Amino acid sequence: RSSSEFGADYEATLVSLETGFFFQPVSGVYTGFKNSYTHNYIGDLKRDRIVNVMQSILYFKPSTYHLLALRTVSSFAWRHKANYRTVLGGDNGLRGYPDRYFNGTRLALVNTEYRVFSPIEILTVGLGGALFFDAGYIWDEHEKIGLSDLRSNIGLGLRFGLTKSSTARIIRLDVARALSDDNWFISFGTENLFSLARFQ
Known about the structure:
Blueprint: E1 12-23, E2 29-42, E3 46-63, E4 66-78, E5 86-88, E6 102-104, E7 106-122, E8 125-139, E9 151-162, E10 170-178, E11 184-189
Antiparallel strand pairs: 1-2, 2-3, 3-4, 4-7, 5-6, 7-8, 8-9, 9-10, 10-11
């Protein structure tokens, strides 16, 4: 709950419902689905912003050092205020573009990564890498959704596993090239862009 007592310009109450599943159908294959529905009420429970986000994930791990990972995301928002925008770019999922480069109310996104884990360890840091492809876009509420609008990128990343860290377990450094606009962008994080842990 957000309150004017803490400097907010209005009072709001968030109600969220999350459902999903996670399972391993066969050895080396993991899959999961999650749906999150959030409803924002302002003042005397007047309906405000509504957001529904669906995510699915598939991991295929044929051996100890190789992993193919796929994630899909769709998001739909209603009753958006001007300052409430769903964003896409950089660490939001489309790594060939700067953070928050696209914004709107309806999002579609696909992330694919081929991750390689190395047995090499320098001091307490494990070395790995990833090849990836991202595709997605965000439309405004009254725009027609079309596949021709999708933006995509390819890229290469380094992964540094921190085996002794009590907080961050991995450092991610990705370099991506946008296929539609011929741009290059570097993103950095202390976790993978997506993981199974968020579905368990």
